[in-house]
Specification:
Alpha-D-Glucose-1,6-Bisphosphate, Chain A, domain 4
């Protein structure tokens, strides 16, 4: 398995959903869930996570101790329809690619996330667990967008 796909439908327009996904990621990102969604080392805690909302912008985490880890960079930028970014753990031989697409119909936006490139990264065994993780992350995101 070289790619995994997760999706969710959210009762909101794609402009709002895209903006929330990219520009408010630190407000909704679940650092802990079924898995740990942070690159923070054991001796420190997660702090913040951010996208620089532009082509070539960083996707990075700032740990509680102030250190930064660059997860990847924005590799395609077409708001509010889609964007993609690289994702590279320390043990990866090459970055993986995450594509996030936003499709609006009948007052709902479908967010479809495809994470690929596991074989080239040298960690194809990670794909299935990332698929589960992205399902959980999108679920948290969907609840956050609709929260009052």
């Amino acid at each position: 398995m070289d790619s995994v796909t997760a999706s969710i439908q959210i009762k909101a327009g794609k402009d709002k959903v895209f903006d929330a996904f990219v520009n408010r990621v630190n407000d909704w990102w679940p650092f802990k869930g079924k898995f740990t969604y942070s690159f923070a080392p054991e001796e420190t805690a997660p702090g913040q996570i951010h996208f620089e909302a532009r082509l070539g912008g960083r996707f990075y985490e700032v740990f509680a101790n102030g250190e930064e880890f660059q997860i990847g960079e924005v590799s395609a930028w077409q708001p509010p329809e889609r964007f993609s970014f690289t994702w590279k753990g320390e043990e990866y031989q090459a970055p993986t690619q995450v594509l996030v697409e936003f499709t609006e119909a009948d007052g709902q936006t479908t967010v479809t996330l495809t994470h690929s490139g596991w074989a080239a990264a040298g960690v194809p065994q990670y794909a299935a667990s990332y698929g589960d993780g992205w399902e959980e992350i999108l679920g948290v995101f969907g609840e956050w967008v609709l929260a009052p």
